[in-house]
Amino acid sequence: MAFISTLLGIIASLGITVGIVLLIMGAIKKKKYKGGMITLVSLVLFIIAAIITPDDLKEKYANQEQSKAEKQHDVDKQLNDDDDDDDDKRKKKSNELSSQQKKTIKSLQNFPAFTKEYKKLNGSTQKKTWDKHLSGKKVTWKGYVMEAKGKKVYVWGGDKYKDQKWSQVKKSKKNEAYQVFLADFGRNTPTLKAGDKVTIEGTLMSSGDAKQNLHWKLYTAKLMSK
User: How far apart are CA 130 and CA 217, in angstroms?
Assistant: First the structure.
């Protein structure tokens, strides 16, 4: 039965093809080639072949189609997984810290060393490092009071203090303001004067900039020693 249905299906397919060709030729040459009859008979044979096809053969064909679909799904899934892996690798790589970033972060509690390392970072990396790893961090920095105005105290944190005045440093063409941090004590105003050596704890609020001669800022500052 399976052989007969397959044979009928093949004959029907060929007959339909021949019938359509004859119909087209007849239309072009304006002659009757019985293409319509052949097509009609072939369609009937095709229907008969479909009807007498054994259930097990139908199931076989269905299983084959399902198997093809499952294989394609597996291929698509593998491609998607590969894309996800590539995305993960790119994200991991973008989140990895460079050796210079690590040095900068590690030196955070030592103001002179930190400002030197931070300055070595290029513009985009510097901003990324500040945003993700430095802004809002608590630090304990040492230095010399340059100017004390109530709750705001300007401190020279650089290596060498030579009695510089804030009024001069903030206009310096040597970009000396980068070596200064402003400590905002809020309501707890300390009694300090220029030249006092201090240790101050605070939270990083804004970064200094060597090129633009900008100082650093700490808020919620506390005087640890004087």
Answer: 13
